[in-house]
Amino acid sequence: MKTLFKHLTSLLSLLLVFAFVSCGGGNTSEVTDEIDIPVVDFASELKLNIGSFTLKQEVTVKNFVDGDTVHFNVPVSVMPEGVLKARFIGINTPESTGKIEQYGKAASAFTKEKLKDAVSIIIESDTATWNADSTGNRYLVWVWYKTADMEDYRNLNVEILQNGLAIASNSNNNIYGSICTSAIDQARRQKLNVYSGVKDPDFYDGAAVELTLRELRTNIESYKDILVAFECIVAANASDTVYVEQYDEETGIYYGISVYYGNSGVGGDGLKILDIGNKIRIVGKVQYYETGETWQISGLKYRAMKPDDPENIQLISSGHSGAFVLTDPDTFKNGKLTVSVKDYESGEEKDVTFDYAALVMSTSVEMKGLKVKSVYTTQNEGSSSNGAMTLTCQAGETEIFVRTAVLRDASGNLITEDAFAGKTIDVKGIVDYFDGAYQIKVFTIDNIIIK
What we know:
alpha+beta, CATH 2.40.50.90, CATH 2.40.50.140, 3 domains, five-stranded mixed barrel
């Protein structure tokens, strides 16, 4: 009897425990955590329905912008200019084209990697029309791609979400909303990338604002006296200043700035980092140089004993060269360019029109067929510019100024205005600004070809 009572008591206790757990009592998280939830490839589960009501168009890539923005070549029946600027619907990847954000570069690289080998890319609208985003210049699309070894198309928007390289952007309010939500939930469970809680290993870890030179040049007054960081190519090195540049995929031009390293304490191996043709990371303060009427970066640091210091200038790679973009004289003098600019405070985008030369300030350019009409020579024995020249040139109806450093031939002899007066020249130099006008600054005689 006692044995029976003991068994009944044990059975009753066990039933009570089961009832307590099933009713939500106690801590069930450990039980839940042990459940093996299968990983789903949502990007392949979602199928492209060519016959549905939405618009579809096969496209090719014109240029990559960032993780959720690509410009595609399309027929003029879709876009009159033949290019559709696509913003991926349902997702928002971290920034890689303005102020750089963690995992922004990773998202951008992911999109490029997936599309560069595609044998077919199809964009799809979310409704029966192509819908513009809030800027009015980009169109919200789903992107499908297929490589040579695939039978079916994959949805890139969903693939980015399931890899944790984007956060939701109205993901529920679209035709594939439920699968987008599932992809995000899975990325959270797996703690991938932006959901990992782990610092992006490729992200600059310091006090400076990491950004692109496009962001800096188009918003430069907002960054006055602020410490910034960016990657760039050294195009020219003159005295105690280097001129650096960076290509922007979306606008198709180079943006640049001058970097002053005099009195900075950068010496020895640090100076070698600033050699022409190096790709480097610059960390410095944005300042307005009153005398030269230009913006520059200054306050560089290089601590040889602390090579991993995030505020050091750093060498990334070598063997590059300045772009020296062949530039039409009239475009240089009179051209305008409209660029989408994010407000520094609010982050809202708006279109701003700039003088072309203002946007390409401090970048390397080439200009051909300039007829030298007159030459002014600086004559000041106490100045390092003594013997430097300003060439007033003509190209058709356009007047172009070329400013030289003090030029010497192979024997060290001073080159004077007689070498250029009345001649036609091709030049390579850096876009500069002096006395209210943009000019091309040339540092060596090798960069002037007399026709």
